[in-house]
Amino acid sequence: MEAARAALEALRARVEAVQPDLLVAAGALLAAIVVLYLLFDTLSYAAIPSLEVPLKQEELAEELEAPVYTPPKSLPKDKIPCYDPGTMQLLGYAKAMTPEEVRAAIAKAKEASKVWRHSSFAQRRLLLRILLKYIINHQEQICRVSSRDSGKTPLEAVLGEIIVTAEKLRWLIAEGEEALKPQRRSAGVMAFYKSARVEYVPVGVVGAIVPWNWPFHNIINPISAATFAGNAIVIKVSEHASWCIDYYARIVDAALAAAGAPPGLVQFVTGYGDAGAALVAGGVDKIVFVGSTEVGSKVMAAAAPRVTPVTLELGGKDAFVVCGDADLAQVVPIAVKAAFLNCGQNCASGERYIVERSVHDKFCAGVAEVARVMRQGPALGHGPVDAGAMCMPGSVEKVHRLVTDAQSKGARVLAGGAPPAGAAGQFYPPTVVTGVTPEMAIWHEEVFGPVMVVVPFDSDDEAVALANDCEFGLGSSVFSGSTRRARAIAARLEAGMTSINDFNATYMCQSLPFGGVKMSGFGRFGGVEGLRALCVPKAVAEDAYPFIKTTIPAPWLPPVGPVAQPFAVALTTMFYGPCFAVKARGLAALLRCLVAPGGGGKAKAA
Ligand SMILES: NC(=O)c1ccc[n+]([C@@H]2O[C@H](COP(=O)([O-])OP(=O)(O)OC[C@H]3O[C@@H](n4cnc5c(N)ncnc54)[C@H](O)[C@@H]3O)[C@@H](O)[C@H]2O)c1
């Protein structure tokens, strides 16, 4: 013991003697590594081309001087009126493209796709890096243009247009190639001498149809994934957010040119439903539709004659389950964001709040208090607001119809509940409704507006039943102080995505697939699955060893003899027999076949 202690003391003394030198050397090495890394990082950033995208006066202006727009009885066929939904000021007109023009755009994209499919991942990454650099350096501008066209507040624009887009680009740059690399697969038993793999081959031209709720993210999301997968893309934007596309298309075009991509790789289509229909029927190789369930089913039917594959990202009515043991101080602000972000105009918006009875009243009081103090107004030029305008004409009326229907059937409105009198823009206030029953339309219909519906539950089974009592199944959330309990509830929810103790956290993890079940659609967009869905998963098998190649066994060579089938049966038994004895029986039968008359191919000679 004494000897060990002495040895330890001696060792400590020796380490202490050299320690200062070692520390200095290690510190210097670390500093050198950090400096080198920072130098490399700065130089590689500087090497990414910076885009020059000229802006128009109205894209730069915080406040506009423009006439107020009064929607006409019938819309012009050849152009789309664009206006700021917060002030109703006319921004201008976008072209309503004809079906012929859409087909011409597809043809251009097809030509470009023939070149781009052979591009390297390094070139595709460069394209995304150029985009990311521009986006990060011009966030406020991109957001201002989105806010003006769609009514969202500048803060909401950063959250929904920029952050998720930046994360998507970062993920594709960091992990996209890994997801699309050929993947080795097992060759099986009878093909033991083969090497098998899946190659992810670009489909060609992706046709994407997107809604208006996040006009920047909704275009960069499919453009980045489609081009990274080696495709061209024709993207049909919504007639309710077409003004901003002029600027966003200039960004994309400049990035394509700087990355050396073929002209025509990304084509924008502005127009009404007929332009979308022309895109679906126009011979694209894959359709990604993001929009309502009603139009999504039409798109699916229209894609059927050409058997064009479709991914459908449709409506949602997310359940937000709050257990009695959840931390309400954490939950209430998240619940408010989940319901009211972008005026609730999100496919994955919290709509149905299912709250354990023990905390139901406290939860309602908390969210209603926040909803009541939220200021609403035009997004730009009038000081900060917490909620902006609703983008689509008719949305305010639709939301109000659902709220008043519920009220007339006994529901209670704790906050909001009526559009502000005399407001120039399309506003509906953050609204909290309780006492909702399944007889009310608001329990079933997608509101797509700033309305939080709260219902109580008494047992976890009831919470799950309430959450699943819905035609949609896109996102969902469960909050509980017990992770085990939250996971158990989450596992039973009929939804494509679930966040535990958070809302929509799955979307911040861009490696995850995005999509729903039931009437929320099928197929996945985003993540590894979404990226691969923009490719043909081509199966390839080849000889694994140069000295073994496939030959047709002699008994099977025509004209076949009587042992041809017994030989096949024996071979099957030998390879797939469930135990060694059965396999041995197969081998014995195989040998018998080979020595039988005609077994060595003599039948042919005969
Ligand atoms: N699941 C998701 O990822 C997701 C994301 C955002 C929005 N949404 C859903 O989108 C809906 C709101 O968006 P919207 O009102 O723009 O949806 P929408 O279905 O009315 O329109 C979507 C797009 O389809 C086009 N279109 C219309 N008729 C068409 C046709 N016959 N053929 C082809 N295209 C046609 C429109 O011009 C528009 O560009 C909500 O239901 C929302 O839940 C879903």
How would you sum up this structure, described in words?
It is built from 21 helices and 20 strands. With 606 residues, the chain is an alpha/beta fold. The chain has 4 domains: 1-47; 97-314 and 531-539, Aldehyde Dehydrogenase, Chain A, domain 1 (3-Layer(aba) Sandwich); 318-519, Aldehyde Dehydrogenase, Chain A, domain 2 (3-Layer(aba) Sandwich), CATH 3.40.309; 551-606, no CATH class. The strands form 5 sheets. A 7-stranded mixed β-sheet has the order 12-13-14-11-10-16-17, with helices on both faces. Helix 10 links the parallel strand 8 and strand 9. The mean pLDDT is 95.
Q: Characteristics of this structure?
A:
606 residues; Aldehyde Dehydrogenase, Chain A, domain 2; 4 domains; seven-stranded mixed β-sheet; six-stranded mixed β-sheet; 21 helices; binds nicotinamide-adenine-dinucleotide; transmembrane; oxidoreductase activity, acting on the aldehyde or oxo group of donors, NAD or NADP as acceptor
How much β-strand is present in the residues?
A: 15-25%
Largest sheet: 7 strands, mixed
* Count of β-strands: 20
User: Which CATH top level class of the largest domain fits?
Assistant: Alpha Beta
Residue stretches low in confidence (pLDDT < 50, at least 5 long) are none
Overall pLDDT: 95
The rounded Rg comes to: 31 Å
Structural class: alpha/beta
Which kinds of small molecule does this entry bind, naming each only once? nicotinamide-adenine-dinucleotide
CATH homologous superfamily placement of the largest domain: Aldehyde Dehydrogenase, Chain A, domain 1
User: What is the number of helices?
Assistant: 21
User: Could you say which overall geometry the principal axes of the C-alpha atoms support?
Assistant: globular
The assigned CATH architecture of the largest domain is 3-Layer(aba) Sandwich
Strand order of the largest sheet: 12-13-14-11-10-16-17
The CATH topology of the largest domain turns out to be: Aldehyde Dehydrogenase, Chain A, domain 1
Query: In whole angstroms, how far apart are the ends?
Result: 92 Å
Instruction: Determine the fraction of residues in helical runs and give it as a percent range.
Output: 40-55%
Count of domain modules: 4
Transmembrane segments: 21-40
GO molecular function: oxidoreductase activity, acting on the aldehyde or oxo group of donors, NAD or NADP as acceptor
Active site: 313
Domain Aldehyde dehydrogenase: 78-540
